Amino acid sequence: MIAKKYRLPVQDFIGKNGSVKKTRYFLFKSFSKELPYPRIGVVIGKKVFKSAAKRNVLKRKIYNYFREKELLKKTNKDILVIGLKDLCLLKDNHAIIDALEKNYENII
Q: Name one GO molecular function term (predicted).
């Protein structure tokens, strides 16, 4: 899990405008930084997985991906990752992380 300091309070950023990049599985929103360090937020809705446990596991995997790859050090923006409904078509968590990896490289 990523440190709380680097987590974006998503409830404050859901309605805000920022630069948007939409892919099949994810919607990436980036905002100018309000703090001296970048933050990341992840939103996975009920339409993706009905079970809260599955949504939380997926959120943890996405946070760990950013922590392990040290991607926050490479950016100067706050990033909000929103999982889209097609994400439920990927059965394996590794496939989800692979989709995130392919799409995030285009964002930076």
A: tRNA binding
